[in-house]
Amino acid sequence: MAVLHFYTRTGCHLCEIMLDELLPMIRGKAELKMRDIDSRPEWREKYDIRVPVVEADGQLLSEYPLDREAIRQFLTGIGRSGESLSE
Predict the structure, then answer these.
(1) Residue 78: its pLDDT value, please?
(2) Which of 30, 45, 58, 67 could lock 62 by a disulfide, CB 3.0 to 4.6 Å apart?
(3) β-pairing, 59-63 with 53-56?
(4) What are phi and psi of 66, to 5 degrees?
(5) 63 - beta bridge partners?
(6) What is the 3-state secondary structure (H, E, C) of the chain?
(7) 3 has which bridge partners?
């Protein structure tokens, strides 16, 4: 199953909104791994005020607001190739 990384931080209301939109889209199609940017200095340095961010296989798929088309294309590509991406 494909893995999406969701970069977030505690108390981020935009993150909560985007997560609510993202979860129904990926249910049964991809695993979501939450990454609190404040837990690692390199994530905080990279994302800081850019959260929320969705990445897969090292590729940026979306920042806020959710890029539904990019997520759909990613999920469709996985279905066609039959590949399973992982961390």
Answers:
(1) 72
(2) 67
(3) antiparallel
(4) -60, 130
(5) 53
(6) CEEEEEEECCCCHHHHHHHHHHHHHHCCCEEEEEEEHHHCHHHHHHHHHHCCEEEECCEEEEECCCCHHHHHHHHHHHHHHCCCCCC
(7) 31
Q: Residue 15 and residue 86: Cα distance in Å, rounded?
A: 23
CB 51 within 8 A of CB 15: yes
CA–CA dist 31, 54 (Å, integer): 12
Rounded Cα gap, residues 84 and 49, in angstroms: 31
Query: For each of the chain's 87 residues, which pLDDT tens digit applies?
Result: 899 999 999 999 999 999 999 999 999 999 999 999 999 999 999 999 999 999 999 999 999 999 999 999 999 987 554 444 443
| Residues ≥6 apart with Cβ < 8 Å to 18 | 52, 54, 62, 64, 65, 66
pTM of the model: 0.87
